[in-house]
C-alpha cells in the first residue's frame, strides 16, 4: 500500500535547493496576497456566514472577532488621546518653570500623575486585549480550516492527490499561530495610525501651514517606496523557510515513529546525516531572511532617525518666517516643545507604518501558506463534487444486503489500469478474497468500495452505511487512536451517547485473546495516547481492531491484510468468530489460511484482467472451520 509520505518534498541540499528555487512559485506582497489576506479576514469577521458582522447575538460574538476588535480599537484610540496629553506635559512644565509659578507647579502634579497612570493602564490593557485577539483569531481560523480539512474524503484527497501542498498539518498547527501573532503586532498600528495621521497632520498644519504636513507626507511615501523594494524578496523566503520547518519537523516525527526499525538497521548515522541536511536547508532560508532583513532594517532605522531632524526643520519654518516674533523666550520654548512633539509624533506614526513593513513580509509569507491550503481545499471540494456527479455510488436502502460492482473500470490516480469491466455481486454470506501479485490493485478495489477512488466507468452499489457500523474497514496498519481502551473499541463512535460497559470490554478482550491487556492498563478510561505502540505489538494491535468489529457487528467487513502480523491460530479464530457473528468478509490476502474462509476469489492479473473463482460454491458460513 502507498502511504501519505509521498506528499512531502524531498529533502534537498543547499545547492540542489537553489537550482530548485527557479522552478518554485513566486510569493510576494502583491494582489494575490491581498486577495488571500481579505479571505482570511472574512473568516475572522464572518466565520459562519453571519448576516451582519456587527450582530451582537451570542452566536455572532462567538464566531466573529468583530466586537473584540472594536473594543481593541476603541481602547487604542483612548490610549492615543492619553498619549497626546502625556506628550504635552513637557511643554506645560516649560511654561510653569520658566514663569517660576510654584502654585501652578503644585496643581499640575496631580493631573500629570493621573495621565501617566492612565497611559500605563491603557498600554497594559492593550497588550492584554492583543493577546485575546490573537487567541480568538487563532481559534476561528484553525476551526475553519479543520472543518474543511478533516471531513469525509477531503483529507485523503488532499494528502494523496495534491502534492503541491506540503505539510498541511504544519500550516494548520503553526502557520496560523504565527499569522495571528503577527497580525496582533501590526493590527493596532496599521488601523490607528491612519486616523492619528489625519489628526496630527491637521495639528501640524495649524502651526506650519501646508509645508509641514507636505514634507512629512513626502518623507513617508519615499520611505514606503524604498522599504517595499526590500520587503518583496523576504515574503518568498518566509514561505520557503516555513516549508522547510515543516519538512524538518516531519523528519523528526518519523525518527520517533520508526525509532525501533532504525535501531534494528543501525541506521542512526544515516538518519543523522539526513537530519543535518534538512536542518542546513532550513537554516539557509533562515539566513536568507536574516540577510535580507538587514538592508530593510537600515532603511527603516534611517527614516526613524531622520524623522527627529525633520520635526525641527518643520518647526523652524514658522519661526524663521517670523510667525512668533511677538513671543518671549519662555512662550517660544513651550511652543517649540509642543509643536515638535506634534511633528515628531506624526513622523513616528509614519515610521511605525514603514517599520511594520518588515512584519508585513512575515504576514504575507504566512498568508500565502494558509491561503494556498484553503484554495487547495476548494479544489478538493470541487473534485469530490464532480466525482459524485460523474461517478455516483449507489447507497440506497433498497440494496440492503448486497455489494455490487457493476461493469467497473478503475484506474489509479497516475492512470495505471487496475481492472477493466469488472462485474461482481457480493451477497450476505458470500465471503470474497481478493488476490493477485503485488501492485495488481487489490487495495485499489477496496478504495473504490470505500468511494475514495472514482471508477472511470460503471457503478459501485454499497449498502447505505449507518454510522460507520454497517461496513467496517480493517487496514493492514491498524489505526490505533490517541485515547483510552474504551474509546479504542468504540471508534469511530459517531454518536457520543454510545456506551460500552466494563463487562462488555472484558468479554471482547477475551474474544480477541487480549485479556492480559486488562492487567497492563490502569483503567479502561486511561488515555495511553502514543504509548499504545509500546503497550501492544503489531499483531496485538490488529487483534484490538477486531474487538471494534465484534462490538459493532457490521454487515460487511473489508479486510486488507488485516491479520498479516497474527499467528495462524489466532487468525483462524478471529475469522471464524467474525463470520459466526453474521458478518460478510471481503479480504485482501496472500495467506492460504485466510483464503480458505472465502467462498469466492477475485483474482487480479495486474494488467486490468481478472477472474472470479467459486461463483457457484456454498457460502463459507456453512463450512465448518
Ligand atoms: N495514491 C496513489 N496514487 C497513485 N497511484 C497509486 C496510489 N496508490 C496506489 N497506487 C498505484 O496503484 C497500483 C495498485 O496499488 P495497490 O495498493 O492497490 O496494490 P496491491 O495489489 O494492494 O499491492 P500489495 O499487494 O503490495 O499491497 C500500484 O501500481 C500503485 O503504484
TrEMBL record:
Key words of the record: ATP-binding, Membrane, Nucleotide-binding, Transmembrane, Transmembrane helix, Transport
A GO BP annotation: very long-chain fatty acid catabolic process
InterPro entries: AAA+_ATPase (IPR003593), ABC1_TM_dom (IPR011527), ABC1_TM_sf (IPR036640), ABC_transporter-like_ATP-bd (IPR003439), ABC_transporter-like_CS (IPR017871), ABC_transporter_sub-D (IPR050835), P-loop_NTPase (IPR027417)
Membrane-crossing residue ranges in chain numbering: 66-88, 108-135, 208-226, 302-320, 332-350
Annotated ranges, domain ABC transporter: 403-624
GO cellular component: peroxisomal membrane
Any Pfam family: ABC_membrane_2
PANTHER family: ATP-BINDING CASSETTE, SUB-FAMILY D MEMBER, LYSOSOMAL COBALAMIN TRANSPORTER ABCD4
Name of the molecule in the record: ATP-binding cassette sub-family D member 4
Provenance organism: Thamnidium elegans
Amino acid at each position: 500500500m502507498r502511504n501519505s509520505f509521498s506528499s512531502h518534498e524531498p529533502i534537498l541540499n543547499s545547492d540542489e535547493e537553489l537550482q530548485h528555487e527557479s522552478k518554485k512559485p513566486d510569493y510576494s506582497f502583491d494582489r494575490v496576497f491581498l486577495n488571500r489576506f481579505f479571505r482570511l479576514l472574512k473568516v475572522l469577521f464572518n466565520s459562519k456566514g453571519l448576516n451582519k458582522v456587527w450582530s451582537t447575538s451570542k452566536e455572532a460574538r462567538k464566531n466573529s472577532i468583530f466586537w473584540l476588535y472594536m473594543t481593541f480599537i476603541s481602547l487604542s484610540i483612548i490610549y492615543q488621546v492619553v498619549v497626546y496629553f502625556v506628550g504635552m506635559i513637557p511643554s506645560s512644565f516649560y511654561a510653569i518653570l520658566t514663569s517660576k509659578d510654584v502654585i501652578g507647579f503644585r496643581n499640575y502634579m496631580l493631573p500629570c500623575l493621573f495621565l501617566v497612570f492612565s497611559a500605563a493602564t491603557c498600554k497594559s490593557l492593550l497588550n492584554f486585549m492583543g493577546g485575546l485577539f490573537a487567541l480568538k483569531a487563532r481559534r476561528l481560523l484553525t476551526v475553519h480550516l479543520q472543518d474543511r480539512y478533516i471531513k469525509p474524503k477531503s483529507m485523503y484527497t488532499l494528502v494523496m492527490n495534491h502534492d503541491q501542498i506540503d505539510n498541511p498539518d504544519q500550516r494548520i498547527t503553526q502557520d496560523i499561530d504565527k499569522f495571528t501573532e503577527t497580525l496582533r503586532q501590526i493590527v493596532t498600528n496599521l488601523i490607528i495610525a491612519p486616523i492619528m495621521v489625519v489628526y496630527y497632520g491637521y495639528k501640524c498644519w495649524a502651526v506650519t501651514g501646508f509645508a509641514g504636513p507636505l514634507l512629512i507626507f513626502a518623507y513617508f511615501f519615499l520611505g514606503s517606496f524604498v522599504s517595499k523594494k526590500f520587503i518583496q524578496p523576504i515574503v518568498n523566503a518566509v514561505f520557503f523557510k516555513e516549508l522547510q520547518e515543516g519538512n524538518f519537523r516531519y523528519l523528526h516525527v518519523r525518527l520517533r515513529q520508526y525509532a525501533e526499525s532504525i535501531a534494528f538497521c543501525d541506521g542512526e548515522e544515516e538518519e543523522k546525516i539526513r537530519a543535518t541536511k534538512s536542518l542546513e536547508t532550513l537554516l539557509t532560508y533562515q539566513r536568507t531572511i536574516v540577510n535580507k532583513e538587514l538592508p530593510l532594517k537600515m532603511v527603516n532605522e534611517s527614516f526613524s532617525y531622520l524623522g527627529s531632524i525633520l520635526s525641527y526643520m518643520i518647526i523652524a519654518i514658522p519661526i524663521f518666517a517670523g510667525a512668533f516674533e511677538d513671543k518671549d523666550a519662555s512662550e517660544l520654548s513651550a511652543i517649540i516643545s509642543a509643536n515638535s512633539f506634534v511633528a515628531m509624533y506624526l513622523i513616528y506614526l509614519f515610521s511605525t507604518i514603514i517599520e511594520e513593513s518588515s512584519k508585513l513580509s512575515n504576514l504575507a509569507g504566512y498568508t500565502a501558506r494558509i491561503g494556498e491550503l484553503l484554495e487547495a481545499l476548494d479544489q478538493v471540494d470541487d473534485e469530490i463534487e464532480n466525482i459524485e456527479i460523474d461517478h455516483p455510488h449507489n447507497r440506497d436502502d433498497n440494496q440492503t444486503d448486497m455489494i455490487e460492482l457493476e461493469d467497473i473500470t478503475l484506474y489509479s490516480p497516475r492512470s495505471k489500469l487496475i481492472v477493466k469491466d469488472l462485474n461482481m455481486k457480493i451477497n450476505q454470506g458470500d465471503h470474497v478474497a481478493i488476490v493477485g501479485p503485488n501492485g495488481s490493485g487489490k487495495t485499489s478495489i477496496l478504495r473504490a468500495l470505500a468511494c475514495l477512488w472514482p471508477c472511470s466507468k460503471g457503478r459501485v452499489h454499497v449498502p447505505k452505511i449507518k454510522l460507520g457500523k454497517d461496513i467496517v474497514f480493517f487496514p493492514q496498519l491498524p489505526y490505533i487512536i490517541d485515547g483510552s481502551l474504551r474509546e479504542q473499541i468504540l471508534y469511530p463512535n459517531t454518536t457520543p451517547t454510545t456506551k460500552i460497559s466494563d463487562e462488555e470490554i472484558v468479554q471482547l478482550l477475551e474474544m480477541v485473546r487480549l485479556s492480559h491487556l486488562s492487567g497492563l492498563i490502569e483503567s479502561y478510561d486511561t488515555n495511553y495516547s502514543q504509548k499504545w505502540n509500546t503497550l501492544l505489538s503489531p499483531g496485538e494491535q490488529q487483534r484490538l481492531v477486531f474487538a471494534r468489529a465484534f462490538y459493532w457487528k457490521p454487515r460487511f467487513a473489508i479486510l486488507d491484510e488485516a491479520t498479516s502480523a497474527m499467528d495462524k491460530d489466532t487468525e483462524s479464530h478471529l475469522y471464524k468468530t467474525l463470520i459466526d457473528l453474521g458478518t460478510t468478509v471481503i479480504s485482501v490476502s496472500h495467506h492460504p489460511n485466510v483464503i480458505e474462509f472465502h467462498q469466492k476469489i477475485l483474482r487480479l492479473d495486474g494488467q486490468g484482467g481478472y477472474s472470479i473463482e467459486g461463483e457457484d460454491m456454498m457460502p463459507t458460513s456453512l463450512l465448518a472451520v
